[in-house]
């Protein structure tokens, strides 16, 4: 039912589908093709799983190739030259991906190995919950690039950790380690290393195989519809903010400086 993909690996094992973002040379950053392929696999799961199907996928684990990085964010190299119109299309399809993940009728667990920054943290937060390896780190560093979160971060981070903590993390862009992420409620559990993380994620997913798929789907929907009632509206607000940054000099400077491996000089314009 899925693949082959250029930037994803998929493995279905007794109802548990593991989707691995496989672009380690760029720390699994979300290039437009990664986003397209994630959209493809998620829409296939949506079509093939749920009431009226035989539920071939009972749970999804999303992870990144290697031990260093889950997903290091939206692709800064791709964004650097985007026009506001292109940025609008980019964030629109990526935000829609996060909503599709959130709306899947099966549990989706982010197994965060290493960096989950910017769009990587945002993809992890569109999953139902997050497990992490001890070397994981999280952050919304967009302001350091003259940008703002554009794949749901301003909406979902506060749902995980509360508005005040989300404000601190988004406005400073500072990175937090797995222990701090656990303490503030961004992740549910931390494991010693990637092998233990993958094993722990499978163990939890196996619990789901033992219960009613329709009960899981309905409880998941109830949680989403009560807690995330206004997300679509909120995502529209975020998208406008994200696209607006593509008309600023600071965004061009921040992305340029990243690629040149220099410190950016922001002018506030
Ligand atoms: N986009 C594109 N390429 C990226 C990338 C990204 N987000 N993150 C890392 N890479 C690339 C690097 O450019 C580098 O490529 P080259 O070898 O061709 O130079 C390669 O991956 C390895 O990265 P580093 O050499 O930088 O590895 P490091 O271990 O020294 O540092 C890091 C790791 C701290 C994660 C650093 O790579 C980094 O800061 N990355 C950017 C993280 C970031 O700012 N993410 C947010 C993006 S904005 C966003 O996501 C907006 C949104 O909400 C939609």
Short description:
The chain has 269 residues and is of the alpha/beta class. 49% of the residues lie in helices and 16% in strands.
Total count of helical runs of at least 4 residues: 11
Tell me the name of the CATH class of the largest domain.
Alpha Beta
CATH architecture of the largest domain: Alpha-Beta Complex
Which percent band covers the strand fraction? 15-25%
Account of the 3D structure:
The protein is α/β, with parallel strands linked by helices. The chain folds into 2 domains: 8-209, 2-enoyl-CoA Hydratase, Chain A, domain 1, CATH 3.90.226; 213-260, Lyase 2-enoyl-coa Hydratase, Chain  A, domain 2. Helix content is 49%, strand content 16%. The protein contains 11 helices and 10 strands. The strands form 2 sheets. It has a 6-stranded mixed beta sheet, sandwiched between helices. β2, α1 (32-48) and β3 form a beta-alpha-beta unit. The longest helix has 20 residues, at 84-103. It is globular. The model has no long low-confidence stretch (mean pLDDT 92). Residues 26-27, 29, 72-77, 115, 117-119, 122, 141-142, 145, 147, 149-151, 153 line the site of acetoacetyl-coenzyme A. Acetoacetyl-coenzyme A is lined by residues 26-27, 29, 72-77, 115, 117-119, 122, 141-142, 145, 147, 149-151, 153.
């Amino acid at each position: 039912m899925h693949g082959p993909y250029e930037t994803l690996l998929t493995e279905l094992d007794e109802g548990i589908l593991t989707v691995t973002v496989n672009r380690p040379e760029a720390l699994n950053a979300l290039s437009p093709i990664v986003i397209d392929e994630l959209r493809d696999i998620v829409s296939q799961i949506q079509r093939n799983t749920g009431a009226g199907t035989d539920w071939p996928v009972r749970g999804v684990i999303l992870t990144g190739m290697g031990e260093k990085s889950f997903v290091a964010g939206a692709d800064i190299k791709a964004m650097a030259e985007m026009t506001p119109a292109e940025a609008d299309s980019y964030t629109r399809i990526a935000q829609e991906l996060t909503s599709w993940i959130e709306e899947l009728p099966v549990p989706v667990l982010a197994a965060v190995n290493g960096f989950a920054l910017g769009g990587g943290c945002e993809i992890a937060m569109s999953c139902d919950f997050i497990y992490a390896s001890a070397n994981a780190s999280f952050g919304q560093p967009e302001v350091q690039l003259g940008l703002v979160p554009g794949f749901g971060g301003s909406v979902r981070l506060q749902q995980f950790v509360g508005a005040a903590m989300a404000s601190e993390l988004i406005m400073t862009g500072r990175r937090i380690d797995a222990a701090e992420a656990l303490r503030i409620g961004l992740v549910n559990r931390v494991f010693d290393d990637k092998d233990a993380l993958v094993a722990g994620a499978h163990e939890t997913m196996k619990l789901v195989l033992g219960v009613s798929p329709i009960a899981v789907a309905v409880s998941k929907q109830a949680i989403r519809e009560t807690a995330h009632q206004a997300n679509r509206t909120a995502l529209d607000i975020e998208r406008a903010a994200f696209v607006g940054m593509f008309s600023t000099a600071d965004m061009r400077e921040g992305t340029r400086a990243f690629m040149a491996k220099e410190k950016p000089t922001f002018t506030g314009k």
